[in-house]
């Protein structure tokens, strides 16, 4: 059973989507991911978007660790219901509505999002059958809704090619964990400087 690893609801068990409809992020990968994000100092106070949310594990973990707001987007009815259960758990622990669930296709959600909406941290764990052109189209819809210092995390099979980053978004890091590969991207401004700054923060955190 997966769990919330740290923060206000740390140790709490999460509801899982029954069957093999979704591909949950393992606790090992989740722990490594959030260790990296903590090094970036991006979670506290962040506006978080979890696309193809599945059980909502990544978004709910962000809320437990101090994100200001979390939007979970999931179209499947069973998975959306599980998202709501996990959101209710976190919202009860924090005493306020941190996590909101949107039962919607990702493309439709982004199409109807107001132009002024901006997120600081975005997770995308699309189903592996989603091909690269379709993923690229979603990233293109997402790009205008990123804050200036946003981080986008795309989770794919380690055998999948690098996502096609749209104009306005650039990859700055990637990491392989067994059969999973995480791609990290940011708004496309001075990407090289962003790599140096984030790697420096991460290296300092590892030395502590």
What would your notes on this structure say?
The model is unreliable at 190-208 (pLDDT under 50). The chain has helices spanning 27-40, 57-64, 77-94, 106-111, 132-142, 191-207; strands spanning 47-51, 69-74, 99-103, 119-124, 146-157, 169-177, 180-187. The relative contact order is 0.15. It is built from 6 helices and 7 strands, in the order H-E-H-E-H-E-H-E-H-E-E-E-H. Helix content is 36%, strand content 25%. The protein is of the alpha/beta class. Strands 3-2-1-4-5-7-6 form a 7-stranded mixed sheet. It is globular, with a radius of gyration of 16 Å.
DSSP summary: helix tally: 6
| CA-based gyration radius | 16 Å
Amount of helix: 25-40%
For the sheet with most strands, the description reads: 7 strands, mixed
- What general outline do the C-alpha atoms trace? globular
Instruction: Please report the distance between the alpha carbons of the first and last residues.
Output: 31 Å
* Structural class by sheet pairing and helices: alpha/beta
Tell me the strand order in the biggest sheet. Answer: 3-2-1-4-5-7-6
Average pLDDT works out at 90
Strand percentage lies at 15-25%
SSE order in H/E notation? HEHEHEHEHEEEH
Uncertain residue segments: 190-208
Number of strands: 7
Q: What would a concise description of this structure say?
A:
The protein is of the alpha/beta class. The chain contains six helices and seven strands, in the order αβαβαβαβαβββα. The protein has a seven-stranded mixed sheet with strand order 3-2-1-4-5-7-6.
């Amino acid at each position: 059973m997966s769990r919330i690893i740290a923060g206000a609801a740390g140790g709490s068990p999460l509801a899982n989507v029954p069957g093999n409809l979704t591909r949950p992020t393992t606790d090992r990968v989740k722990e490594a991911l959030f260790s990296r994000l903590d090094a970036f100092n991006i979670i506290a106070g962040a506006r978080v978007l979890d696309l193809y949310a599945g059980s909502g594990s990544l978004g709910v973990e962000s809320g437990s660790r101090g994100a200001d707001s979390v939007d979970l987007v999931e179209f499947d009815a069973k998975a959306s219901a599980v998202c709501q259960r996990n959101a209710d758990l976190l919202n009860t622990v924090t005493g306020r509505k941190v996590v909101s669930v949107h039962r919607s296709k990702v493309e439709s959600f982004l199409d109807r999002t107001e132009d002024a909406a901006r997120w600081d941290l975005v997770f995308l764990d699309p189903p592996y059958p989603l091909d690269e052109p379709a993923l690229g189209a979603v990233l293109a819809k997402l790009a205008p809704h990123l804050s200036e210092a946003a981080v986008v995390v795309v989770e794919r099979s380690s055998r999948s090619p690098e996502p096609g980053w749209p104009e306005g978004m650039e990859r700055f890091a990637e990491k392989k964990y067994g059969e999973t590969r995480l791609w990290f991207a940011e708004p496309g401004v001075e990407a090289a400087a962003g790599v140096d700054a984030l790697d420096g923060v991460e290296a300092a955190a590892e030395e502590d």
